[in-house]
Amino acid sequence: MGYSSLAACVEDLEKHGHLIRIKEQVDPYLEMASIHLRVYEEQGPAILFENIKGSKFPAVSNLFGTLERSKFMFRDSLKNVEQLVALRTDPIKAVKNPIKTAGAGLTALSALPMKQSLFKSTFKKTTISALPQIVNWPMDGGPFITMPQVYTEDIERPGILNANLGMYRIQLAGNEYLPDQEIGLHYQIHRGIGVHQSKANAAGKPLKVSIFVGGPPSHPLAAVMPLPEGLSEMTFAGALGNRRFRYFYDEEGFCISADADFVITGTVYPNDNKPEGPFGDHLGYYSLTHPFPVMKVHNVYHRENAIWSFTVVGRPPQEDTSFGALIHEITGSALPKEIHGLKEVNAVDAAGVHPLLFAIGSERYTPYLKERRPQEILTISNHILGKNQLSLAKYLFIAAREDDEKLTTHDLQHFLMHVLSRIDFTRDLHFHTQTTIDTLDYTGTGLNSGSKVVFAAAGAVKRTLSNQLPSGLSLPVTYKNPRIAMPGVITLEMDAFSTAEQAERDIQLLDGAVKGLDLSGTAMIVLCDDSAFTAMNINNLVWVTFTRSNPAADIYGIRSSTNHKHWGCEGPVIIDARKKPHHAPELIKDPAVEENTIRILRTLQFNK
C-alpha cells in the first residue's frame, strides 16, 4: 500500500535505515542547504531537521537523493506505473498483450483523483513568515520553496482532470514582495501553467493558484514527470503512490490537496509582475533578477504535525539528478516511440541538462550508397529540437545507430569520441540562430534567447583521435597550459574574456600559429579560464564547455569558411568557453557555514 502522508513516508524510511534526524537547532539561512549538500555528496540518507530556527515546523530533504531510495519508496507500484506510461505512449500494446497489461489498466482506473471533504477540518491556518525560511545560496534573493507542486486549472475547461501540476520555484520573501501578502512565482517557457495564465489574461481574469508542499512522495514526482498526452499529473500521482489523489475546494474555490502538508492559495493578475531572484540554480550558476508573476496570497494552510519538504539545486549532480534517473526508469523508451527513428536521447546531467543533448538515431535514407552521411538523423534532430523541453537545448550531438549497435549516450566520453572521430566539420555542423534557449541559461543574447547547433555524425571513422598534443605546437602568448581533456580534445587557458572582437583576433592568431601542423588527431579545442580544472574529468569538461558558450557566438574553427550560408571548418572546431561579462555568477559556498556543517555532521557520526 502507498503512503497516506509525508509523515508516513518519513517513518518508513527511518525504520529501514534510509533517514537520519538532526535534533540540534539549525539555521535555515545557508546551514540547512549546506548539510543537505554534504549528505547528498556522500549518497547519504534522507534528513529530517527537527528544530529550525524561526519556525515551529520540521523539514525533510534528500528524499530522492539516491535511485535506490526512490525505488524503495515506490516498491509496490513501480512496475504497473511503467506499464501505464508505456500504454499511454503505445496503446496497441494493450491489444497485443491484454493479460500482461491488465494491471496497468486497473492501476489507471483505481488512481483517478477522489474529491473528498472529509479532511477540511484537519487543516489549520498560518502565515508565510511562519514557514521555514530556507535560503540555499549566499546571493539568493530570499527564501524559496524548492519542492512545490503548483496547481492551476484551465478557465475554459475547469476541473482537476484538465488541471496542471508543475514544479516551479516560489520566492517567499525579499525584493519588493509585501511580507505575508505576496510571493513570487517563477516559471520557464514550455510550462503548462503558462497556457493557463495566457487564457486567464485573455479573459481579463486572475488565475487561481494553489501551491502544495509535502504530501506523499508520489505528488512532487508527478509534478516533474513528462507525462504522455491524456495522463494527468493527479492520476499519475495516484497510480505511483498506490493512493488516489484526494482533494477538495475551500470556501474561495481553491483546490486543496487533502494529503499535502501545506497549501498556499492565491491569485495572479494579468501583467502583475515584480522582480524575482536571484536564485542558485541547477546549471551551477545563479539565475538573476527578472520580472515574474507576483501571487497575492489568500490563505496558508497546514495539516497537524506538518513537515516541510525542500531540496537544494546547484551544479550537478544533485537530488534532481536522482529525480531524473527515476523518471528515466519509469518512462524508459517512451520518447523514442514518439520520434520515428530515434533510438536514444540523453539530456546530459553533468552539463546542467538543457545545454547538452546526446542522441542516437537511424540512418536509412540511402542504404544503396557506399558512404553513409547524416541525412535521416538531421530530420530526427529537427524533431528533437521541436519537442517540448528538449527544444531548449543548445548543443545536440547525434550519431547513427548503424555505425555502432552497442553505442550508448550514457557513456559521455565514449559517445563524444564516436561523434568527433566521424564528423565532417565542413559539412556536419548545423546552426539555429536567434532562437529560444533555457530561461536559466545566460550565455545567449538575452533572457530565453540564444542559438543552437547540431553536431551530426554518420559513416566511417574520419580521424583517429590523439591523446597527445600536436607535435611542434607553439602557442601565441595569449594561450597557455594546453591539456588533453580526452582523446581528440585540447583545453587551452586564456586571459579573461574582454570583447568578441578581441576573441576573434586571438583566434586568428591561433589559426596562424598552427598552420602547417598535423592536427589530424585533434577534433576540438576548448578555450577556458582554467585549463587544468576543465580537463580534470569528463564532467568538468562538459560542464565548462557547454554551460559557458553560445554556439553562434562562441564556436570558431581552424581554417573556417562559409559556403552557401553554411559555416564549417577544415581543422578542429574551437569553442570559447570562458566566462563572459553577461554570464551569471557561479555558485560558491560560504566557508564559515561549511565549518559548522562539518561539526554538526560529526556529532551525528556521519563522516563516510
Give a nutshell description of this structure.
27% of the residues lie in helices and 24% in strands.
Overall description:
With 608 residues, this protein is of the alpha+beta class. It is built from 18 helices and 31 strands. Strands 5, 6, 7, 8, 9, 10, 11, 14, 15 and 18 form a ten-stranded antiparallel sheet that branches. The protein has a five-stranded mixed sheet with strand order 20-21-22-24-23, with helices on both faces. Strands 25-26-27-31-28 form a five-stranded mixed sheet, sandwiched between helices. Helix 2 crosses helix 18 (591-603), helix 4 packs across helix 6 and helix 8 packs antiparallel against helix 9 (233-241). The protein is globular.
Describe this protein with a few key phrases:
10-stranded antiparallel sheet, alpha+beta, 18 helices, 608 residues
